[in-house]
Amino acid sequence: MEYYTPDNPIFATYMIAAALMGLKIMGQGWMTAYRMMKSGSGLVNPEDIQKGPFNPAPDPAQLEVNDYTDRSRRMHRNDLENIPAFWAVGLVYVAIAPPLWLAQTLMYGFVVMRLGHAVSYATRQTHEVRASFYTVGSLIVIFMALHVLAALLF
Question: What domains lie within the chain, and their CATH numbers?
Answer without folding.
Answer: 9-37+67-153 (1.20.120.550)
